[in-house]
Every structure is written in structure tokens, then in C-alpha cells.
From TrEMBL:
GO terms for cellular component: plasma membrane. SMART domains: AAA. It is found in: Cell membrane. The chain crosses the membrane at residues 27-45, 65-85. SUPFAM superfamilies: ABC transporter transmembrane region, P-loop containing nucleoside triphosphate hydrolases. This is ABC transporter ATP-binding protein. It comes from Clostridium senegalense. The lineage of its organism: Bacteria, Bacillati, Bacillota, Clostridia, Eubacteriales. It is a multi-pass membrane protein. Residues 32-311 form the ABC transmembrane type-1 domain.
């Protein structure tokens, strides 16, 4: 009954979620259980044979002793084979479960709302994907299977030891109520300790990720040493926490071991007494001590289950909160309508929006954007220009009002319709760490080499790329480090055009361009606007002059 206080309804749900991953691998799992049962049986026969051999030696009956020795050898060979098989099965099951859980987690991460990414550091995702998933798999393939086996073995062994000698069995059983109470206390403590460990682990991964992304900043601002010191500090805290848990774990184990040793001592004394009085044979005493040792180990395993679960629940929470989109892990939501939109008229109608539900960036914002036109959004830094784009892309949801595309509410369109409607060159450009050609194929799998060259020619990048040693097979380095700011923006524009969507959004793409490139862009957008809806955020006077519609943010 006491266990109810420690494991809540929510915890039970987490454990149920965990075992869902086992369903797919039923046969695999049953094979492990089957090999375990054979091991149990072999384990039960062996002490009897050992006892028999010792008894034969003590009675000096050497004739049939060889028979028992060969039998023991044979059983041990089978046992070794099954042990290896079982361990192989466990490892493969473990890997399969890890694969499945990681797939589910990664898929959930991809579908999280942008609001989550604003709050949660990337390191925290990595920490969950790496650390916590291993713990989940371990619960199933290690803890759960071992506990199940322990339960089966305890049931069999309890009958056997009771049959051999009732009084000795009672001595064995005395230790367990004490162990049980201890384990409950240890379990609660372990859960708390693991919770704080996970938090520090998140900080650790976040710190590394942030530092490596900002490596240029660290070098040029001469903060290498400070950065290293901070890393060292976090590592030390992490280490201390790990050591604390290990210390506590070992302390708990030590206490239980001491209880067990004392118990064995009493058992041996009493066993000897029974043998001297002729109430017990040597064979059965040898078998009994061996059984009772296994019995104690198994029963302790079962009692430890609570501690193990408590310890692992922290990880299970961290996994399933994410997979099931529980509080703080909201996922993106789209409407049901699938529309293939060719010409798009956009209306922002009384739109209110806030990133944090406190300060409103847009207060009753209204504007109309006609299809096949060149629109510019102008306004001071921080006035909400990029925010409008974020809302149109449905990266964030408006607080109230409406965004209408051809009089259909944006909220009613499904993900595919929106993504096929709009392409964008973001203010902060991101291009994948792949070759130039692969980057084009990634966003439009049907594009051929001629089309890629045509697009790059269009943005006046083809000559540059053709002159590279690897041409279109040049790998874009991380953070686009092998491209200049202007080249980056022009390649991003070519990639954006490769998607051929009715709406094209360009967020301050002329900011790093020289005059010559600006003229090129001007020509491109002018031409594009004959066929598509172009929305540009820009401070460039020339572009503003040629536009059909100016939206001013204040
Ligand atoms: N992800 C975000 N979370 C919270 N606040 C944000 C976020 N993005 C932008 N903001 C805030 O919203 C305001 C408008 O930003 P933005 O639309 O990017 O301005 P700009 O007009 O320069 O493009 C700014 O005050 C900015 O700090
Ligand atoms: Mg902006």
C-alpha cells in the first residue's frame, strides 16, 4: 500500500507508455524470457548436483561421482550458450527500442511549435535524445526482464527452500521487511537526485552548443579563457552530482549487503546446528545455502524495482512530455483544408499578436496584399516586420483577428497548402551543410541541373560557382562559412525561387548586397511580381520606389 504514495497515476501512465515500445518486439521478448526460464531450471539443478558431489566425497563413494561431474560440465556448457544468446537478444532488443523511441522523439521535435524553440535550448533536446532514451531502453531490457525472472525464480525457490527446511527459510525471510522499507526511502531520494542531475545535464549540453555556435565571438572578444572556466565549472557540478548519486547508490547497496551478510551468518550457524543434530543432510544444506543466496538476490531485485523506477521516472517524464506534447511542449497546429492556391490575395484583419502573451507586438494590424504585385514592408527595427512574416508562415499563431488567403482563414489551411504557397528568404540565412546541388534537390527533388544553373545565373552566382574547384558539388560549410554575406543571400534567393511558390517573401535580403547586386535583385523582383506575390522587407529606397504597395509598421 505504501507504494501508492510514491508512484502516482501519472507515473503509471509513463510506465505504460514505456511498455508500448515492447509490443512490436513480442517474439524477441518472449525468446529472452524463454532462455531465462531454461537458465532458471539449470540454476536449480546445479546446487543439487554440487551438493550430491560434496556428499559423495564426504562419504568416500567415488564410483558414480564421475557421472555427476560430467553432468555438471554438460549443464554448464548449455548454460553458457544460453547466457550468450540471451545477452545478444537483450542488446538487439535494446537497440531496436532505442531506435524507435529516438525516431518518435525526433519526429516530435520537428513538429514542436516555434514557441517551444524560443524557450528550450538545443542542448536540452540533445540531452533528452541521448541520455534519457538509453535509460528508457534499459528499464525494459534490463530492469523489467530481470525483475520478471526474479519473480519467477523467487516463486520456485520459495517452494524449494520451504520444502528443504522451514526454520532456515524463516531466518532468510526476516531480512526482507527491513530491506523493503529501506528501498522505498532510497527510491524517493534517488528520484530527487536524478531530477537535479538532468537539469545540469541540459545546461551542460546547451552551453557546449551555444559556445561552438559562437566560436567566432569567443575568439574575437578574447573570452576563450572565461568560456573555458565556465565549461569547467559546469562540468565540475555535473561530476559532483553524478558522484553524489553514485555515493548514495553504493551506500544503500552497502547497507542492504550488511543485512544480508548478517543474515547468512545466522543461517550458517543454525544450519550447522541442524546437521550436527542429524536433522539435515550435507547435500541439502549445500543446496539450501546456494538457493537461499539466489533467493535473497532475487527478492532484493524485486524490492529494488521501486528505486529503479523512481530513478528512471525522471527520464520517462522527459521523454513522454515531449513525445505526447504535454504542457510546455506544444506542437504546431494546422487546419484541415487542402488547397492548391495559384494566385494569392492576402488580408490581415484586426490582427493582435504577442510572443509572450504580455507585450503585444501587433495591435489591431490591418493590411491587404494583392496577388501579382510587389509589396514592401517598411518600419523601424523591432517594429514587427519579421513578426508579420512569421505569422503568415504560421510559425506562430495570431492571438486574435484573421489572416485570410483568398478569403480562406490561414488557420483552416493544412500544413502542405501553406508550405506550397509561400517560400521565404529569412533575415538570418540558413543553408544546409550539403553540396550546392544537394541543397537544391533537398527543397525541390524534381529540379534538374540545367534549372539549377539557370536559377544561379538569374541571381548572378553561376560564374562564381562554376569557377569553384568542385563547382555545384561544393559543400556549403556550417554557418555558410565558405560564402560571403552577399553570396549567401543570392544563393538563398536562388534556393527560394527553386520552390516556385505563388508567394515569395524576402526579409531584408538587400542588407549585405553591393550596389551592383541590389540592381540585379531589383530587376528580379520586378519581373517576378508580374506572376507572383512578392513581399519584401527592406530599407532600400529604390526598391520602395518601384513597389506597388507600401506597408508601414509603427
Ligand atoms: N521569438 C521571439 N520571442 C519574443 N520576442 C520576439 C521574438 N521575435 C521577435 N521578438 C520581439 O518582437 C519585436 C518585433 O520583432 P521583429 O518582428 O523581428 O522586428 P523587425 O521589424 O525588426 O523585423 C521585437 O521587439 C522583438 O524583440
Ligand atoms: Mg526583421
Amino acid at each position: 500500500m505504501r507504494i501508492k504514495n510514491v508512484i502516482s497515476k501519472r507515473d503509471v501512465k509513463l510506465i505504460k507508455n514505456t511498455f508500448k515500445y515492447l509490443k512490436k518486439f513480442k517474439i524477441h521478448f518472449l525468446s529472452i524470457i524463454f532462455s531465462m526460464i531454461i537458465m532458471i531450471l539449470l540454476g536449480i539443478i546445479q546446487p543439487l548436483i554440487a551438493g550430491k558431489i560434496i556428499e559423495k566425497v564426504s562419504l568416500q563413494q567415488f564410483n558414480d561421482i564421475y557421472y555427476f561431474l560430467i553432468l555438471a560440465l554438460f549443464i554448464q556448457i548449455i548454460e553458457s550458450f544460453i547466457t550468450s544468446l540471451k545477452s545478444y537478444l537483450e542488446i538487439t532488443l535494446n537497440n531496436k527500442i532505442i531506435l524507435d523511441v529516438k525516431n518518435d522523439m525526433y519526429n516530435s521535435i520537428l513538429n514542436l511549435s516555434m514557441k517551444v524553440f524560443d524557450k528550450v535550448g538545443i542542448g536540452e533536446f540533445i540531452s533528452r535524445l541521448q541520455g534519457d532514451v538509453n535509460i528508457l531502453a534499459n528499464i525494459i531490457t534490463n530492469e523489467f526482464i530481470n525483475t520478471l525472472i526474479s519473480i519467477i525464480r523467487v516463486l520456485i525457490l520459495s517452494i524449494i527452500i520451504l520444502k528443504i527446511n522451514l526454520k532456515l527459510s524463516i531466518i532468510i525471510l526476516i531480512q526482507f521487511p527491513i530491506n523493503y522499507i529501506l528501498m522505498l526511502r532510497f527510491g524517493k531520494e534517488l528520484r530527487e537526485k536524478n531530477k537535479s542531475l538532468s537539469k545540469i545535464q541540459d545546461i551542460y549540453f546547451n552551453f557546449i552548443q551555444q559556445s561552438l555556435l559562437g566560436i567566432k565571438y569567443i575568439k574575437t572578444n578574447n573570452i576563450k579563457y572565461k568560456n573555458f572556466k565556465k565549461f569547467n565549472n559546469i562540468s565540475l557540478i555535473l561530476n559532483q552530482d553524478k558522484n553524489k548519486i553514485s555515493k548514495f547508490h553504493n551506500f544503500a547497496y552497502f547497507i542492504i549487503k550488511i543485512i544480508n551478510i548478517s543474515n547468512n551468518f545466522i543461517l550458517n550457524i543454525f544450519g550447522l546446528y541442524l546437521i550436527i543434530r542429524g536433522n539435515l543432510t550435507i547435500q541439502y544444506f549445500v543446496a539450501f545455502t546456494s538457493y537461499s543466496k539466489q533467493f535473497s538476490e532475487d527478492l532484493n531485485n524485486i524490492l529494488q524495482l521501486n528505486a529503479t523506477i523512481q530513478k528512471s521516472l525522471v527520464s520517462l517524464e522527459r521523454i513522454f512530455d515531449l513525445i505526447n506534447n504535454n504542457e510546455n511542449w506544444e506542437c504546431e497546429k494546422f487546419g484541415p483544408k487542402n488547397k492548391k492556391i495559384k494566385k494569392a490575395n492576402i488580408i490581415f484583419q484586426n490582427v493582435y499578436f504577442s510572443y509572450d502573451n504580455k507585450t503585444y507586438i501587433l495591435n489591431d494590424f490591418n493590411c491587404k496584399i494583392k496577388s501579382k504585385s510587389l509589396n514592401v514592408i517598411v518600419g523601424k527595427n523591432g517594429s514587427g516586420k519579421t513578426t508579420i512574416i512569421n505569422l503568415l508562415l504560421k510559425l506562430y499563431n495570431i492571438s486574435s483577428g484573421n489572416i485570410l488567403i483568398n478569403n480562406i482563414k490561414l488557420n483552416e489551411l493544412n500544413e502542405k497548402s501553406i508550405r506550397n504557397l509561400i517560400s521565404v528568404v529569412h533575415q538570418q540565412i540558413y543553408i544546409f551543410n550539403l553540396t550546392i546541388r544537394e541543397n537544391f534537390k533537398l527543397i525541390n527533388k524534381n529540379i534538374n541541373d540545367d534549372e539549377i544553373i539557370e536559377l544561379c545565373n538569374y541571381v548572378k552566382l553561376n560564374d562564381y560557382i562554376q569557377n569553384l574547384k568542385e563547382g555545384y558539388d561544393t559543400v556549403i560549410k556550417e554557418n555558410c562559412n565558405n560564402l560571403s554575406g552577399g553570396q549567401r543571400q543570392r544563393l538563398a534567393l536562388a534556393l527560394c525561387l527553386a520552390r516556385n511558390t505563388p508567394i515569395i517573401i524576402l526579409d531584408e535580403i538587400t542588407s549585405s548586397l553591393d550596389d551592383e547586386s541590389k540592381i540585379i535583385i531589383k530587376k528580379i523582383v520586378k519581373k517576378l511580381s508580374l506572376d507572383k506575390t512578392i513581399i519584401m522587407i527592406t530599407h532600400d529606397k529604390d526598391l520602395i520606389n518601384i513597389s506597388n504597395n507600401i506597408i508601414t509598421m509603427n
